[in-house]
Amino acid sequence: MGIDLQEELKNKITEHGIDNEHDPNKEDVEQLLEGVVEAVAESSDAITNSKNFDVYCSLLKHSDAVPGAVMTKLLDSLTSGFQTEVDATIRDAATEDTEAISGHKEALDMYAFLLHWFVAAAENVKSESEETAPASKAKPKRGRGAKAGRTGGRAAASKKNMEQWSWQDHIPNALKLICRILEKLPAQYVWPTSMEREAFIKCITLPVYDISVNESYMKVADIKKGVQRAICLSVKSHGQGSTASTKIMANLSFHEHLAEPMAECLSIVEDEYHHPELADEVLRDISTQKFSAQDTKGPRTFSKFLVRYSEVCPRHTLKQISLLLDQLDSEAYPMRIAIVEIIGNLIVHLDSNSGPVGSQENTQSTKQINGLYDFLIERMRDVTTYVRTKVLSVFTRLCELKNVYGRSRLHVTRIAITALEDKAAAVRKNAVVLIVKLITTHPWDRIHKGPLEMYVWEREYEELLEKWAPYQEKLDKFNLAEQPSQVEEEEEDDDDDDEAEEEEAEEGHETATKQSKRQNKRAQGDDEMDVDEDENENDANDDAMSADGDESESQPRPSKKGKSKKASKEPHRKPRQSQLNPDALEALRLMDEKEVKELRLTKKYYIEGMDFMRHIEDAMVVLCQLLGSTNKPEALEAIGFFQVAHQYKMRNAQCGIKKMLHLIWQKDNSVTSEDGKEIKGVRSRLLECYQTLYFDPIDDLDARGQVSRIAKNMIELTYGATLAELTSLEEMMRTMMANDQIPPEVISKLWQIYTSNKLLPKPQRRGAIVILGMLALAKHNILSELDHVETMLKVGLGALGKVDLTLARYTCVALQRLNGSAKKVKGSLDDKTMRIEMDSNIFQKLKQVVLQPCRSKDWFGLAEQVINTVYALGEHPDVFCNDLIKQLTQRAFTYGPQAESAAEDKENDPDVMDEDHPGDVSQADSQEPKATDLGDAFHLSQLLFVVGHVAIKHIVYLELVEREAKRQKDEAQAADKKATQNHTARGPSKDAEELDQVAGNAEDEIGEQMQEIREHELLFGPESLLAVYGPMLVHICGRPDKFKNPTLKAAATLSFSKFLCVSSQFCDEHHLLLFKILEKSDSANIRSNIAIALGDVAVSFSTIIDENSNELYRGLSDPDLVVKKNTLMVLTHLILNGMVKVKGQLGEMAKCVQDPDVRISDLAKLFFKELSTKDNAIYNNLPDVISHLSFGEHAVDEEMFHSTMSYIFTFIEKDKQTENVVEKLCQRFQLSEDPRQWRDIAYCLWLLNYKSDRSVKKLIEGHRFYGNKLHEPVVYERFTAILNKARAAKSKDKPDHELDEFGKLLEDSKEAGTEEHDLTKRTKSAVKKRAKRPATRSTRKVKVEQTIEEDDDE
């Protein structure tokens, strides 16, 4: 019997015909197999017996019914028989016995066929029963059991595998057999014809490819190596290159897991078997493939394959790169990504094998690298985000290369900075990562050892130019500025571009240097902190600062070659011998050419380094914006950038460090997941950054020095900080203190600085108490110790505080923290605040500091905090404020001697502060006679300011009194209730329930009493002190023509605004005056304060403000930016919290979306974004917004209308909203005759998404409203664009009949409308002409009548 492999391989293997087929379900399979196994074991030729062969075939055909032990036994029999037959063939081939060799052909074919069939059958078994993890065992059907082999060991193994059997465990041995056959078998002698030999090789290699398509198998190292080796041997020894190429390409198209194993296989074929043709063929096939953009799996697999192959075999990839570059134009972005990554791998390969600098190999590699860089740079314009992101990732990896310096790095830096403004967050994030990598791997560390301090570089660059000056003079003297020296000629071809860059850098160098010097002087002036008695610390700091400078001076400082600016612009040409001046040659010989070359290279080093630093500094503006990104990874990378920039001492890095403080308010989890990776939250990353920069110890500094350094860093964070920055810093310090991240030694050091007797800079002592106050929010015992309180009274409210009012103000803020930061629980009556008797020394000091003679505007901030402190700590703050107001009143209205003695008081009392500029605190009118002045305007301003602030603080105090009264009442009621329950043995009686009801009524009475005091007693009570000043404020604010002092007007307006928040009666009577001031005042400061005050008044008495709600929006059109911003913020707060009703004024808010100022625009966009979260808020007000912006006195130009509405319409997302908006907008056409409104309505319709059929139907139904308006070209274009948008959104399986009819209807309406429009024009023209004719006829009639009358007279 024989078998024709060629025919068998054409059909399915299960279709093989079996003459003597056995059914395992009816026969004992083990007994059936036993005889065949023994026969094959005795002689491998026994397989040619048809009975034996049919048994094998029957069992394989019904493998799903064969027990696992039998399958193992069958496989062992096949492999051992096959092995024996191959060994016999090899022996016979050695004897060159042709007849004996050909005798093995039939048996080898049968063994190959059976092995092929077994692999297919085993796969079927696995696919049905091994559907768990890759390493899990199969559980085939159980057999009846039989002898498994000749030895006891084999029998035991069969019993063990009876229950479980896995084909995966036997694959490595099967692959070893296949590899041995491919490597040792002399196939050319066994099968004389190529077709027969090809069939056999194909039959034993097909199982290899079948095994490879199973992902779980290829995860096993032995199986993967066996598959790769079998493919390599088939290609190398049996000419299966074409077959292997076809199989690899086919498998890559469908099996993604084969990408990397097949790439490694091609590398093995080339490196170990020296057969690169297979890789060439595969790469050529891939380069000609056309990948569709809709296909995701195929391109991704080939992408992985190419990337892996370029990693393991870059040399051969480089040879075929010209073919692969065609895939840069592929529609599938994974292929473009792959080529980008391949280019990166090739650059790494070329760099590592570039040879020594100056060699021919190095020159060739550099040219190739530059060419590959050009492809990467070109890909930064790719339309796909993923490709641009990958380019930046590749650039980041290439920063580690040893030869990527100078120009290449600067070019990459510019690319990264440009990418910071990319529209995709992933690109921006990778751009930040690249910039950080460029900084950390920068090559300009040969002199300065890492830091990039611009002022150091500029200073040393100026010194370098001074060194170069003598050489420049000699060259200029002999006209050699344009003649390169002998040393320079060797490198001029390579340095032409460098000279151009140097020239460009030098042009802007002088201006940049001057600016940096001014910045550095200011920076250096604040660096010193004379706070420690130990002078060694200062010495250590000084040594650290001068270390870099010493090292740079110890090395030679060569500079740029001697060429003037004019010379560098012209082409460098080697002069002829006849053109050289002998004197010039002699001058060159006298020069040290080595030193000239070193100077030239050093100058180039400095110019490139400073150029790099300037690029990074310019990018910090954009990076500061990225700190506020809503994309968390992007914000995290921006934080990391500023941390690195600060560590490298880059200029302006401190701005970003301060701005990132605001991220402390981020509410995020500690970790998030991005692409399977865990990353820290923004808040956690921020705290870690500050901990690293300011609190972690540094080397070469003792413990005392570490404490001083940390204290110095904390204090410097307060320098020049705005109110917002101080608020964020406060939250950070509170958090770090609560987490025990601030050592006690640092706190002691801060107290030491605050109480130091040395003459310290004012900001330094202020910063110490500011930080202490912040830390006290977490642990108030930092301040509550008695000696610390006395210290603050002695320093902050003593002699130093009287001289420095800002220090006194911050001391007052710190005193307020004695109560800690325990937040009141809503509804709770507990009051854990500490109250101090009014005879305490604290209040005496506070009164002294606020009543001291002073004419500085800093007094107002101090007075505010003094009053806050009294109300925070005092048991009876009204007593303190009553006395304070009376004394200030007496001073304000005491004129004559006190005013005249102000100068004398200043001389006698050294604590009196200097006056402000006369223009700031001048009296009402310098031209008015002195007799009309009733007092000092500044003293009156102080009085009014205190009165207003006391009024607003007293409202808060009344709430505390109310809460305390309720608490006491609650305790009394609880005691009575408990006593009542003790008298009754049962549960709560009817009397107890009545008692609860009475308690509730008592609480209501307390609230009503407090409300009565607020409404009528504070500002209108006969015994109220504040009631005296209400009419005074109204009078001063209402007579700006009489009271012209700016400080007085500002203080009076502010206090008047606070009075309006106290009583609804006072507000109702005088609120219109506040609107009048807002309208007429020429002071932006006053208007800004009123804008904020109106928000407070609206919160207090919303019904009164609702009547004049239009006035709230007046500030949005104010020319002053601060007024506009404050108004926008107040309105945002009021509207989003439902405190005012929107009555068609939302259009004014919409105008701010396109405001030229970025802060206003961002605030407006944030408002609409938050408003969109309210139920249909934007949808309900959309018609009013369109009307407000489209026509009327508030209308804007069309361009601004389009940009504004395009943003607002992004919040109309629901299909139901879209349908209703379409219907309403269509109806607007019939109400308007203005073409401008038609265009605006059509534009709004175009902005909607026509995803649902109902919205399209509504548009078609509204044709009767806009059909006669389509003659307007812009309107017709918009409706055509809407039609195209609807067609694009329509499902492909739905017909477009309705849209086609709508398109035809639009076209017909346009033609009809155009004809009607033209007819109207002609009619109007005819009417005008006709209007002239009656006038002519009447004239003739008059003339005829006159003639008749003349005849009658005659």
Automatic annotation (TrEMBL):
- SUPFAM superfamilies to which the protein is assigned, alphabetical: ARM repeat
One GO CC term of this entry? condensin complex
Can the keyword Heme be found in this entry's annotation?
no
Supply the alphabetized keyword list. Answer: Cell cycle, Cell division, Chromosome, DNA condensation, Mitosis, Nucleus
Q: Where is the composition biased (Basic and acidic residues)?
A: 969-979, 1300-1321
Where in or outside the cell it occurs: the entry states: Chromosome; Nucleus
Question: Which residue windows does the record flag with biased composition (Basic residues)?
Answer: 138-147, 558-576, 1322-1341
**Function according to Swiss-Prot or TrEMBL:** Regulatory subunit of the condensin complex, a complex required for conversion of interphase chromatin into mitotic-like condense chromosomes. The condensin complex probably introduces positive supercoils into relaxed DNA in the presence of type I topoisomerases and converts nicked DNA into positive knotted forms in the presence of type II topoisomerases.
Say which family it is in.
Answer: Belongs to the CND1 (condensin subunit 1) family.
Q: What is this protein called?
A: Condensin complex subunit 1
Query: Lineage of the source organism?
Result: Eukaryota, Fungi, Dikarya, Basidiomycota, Agaricomycotina
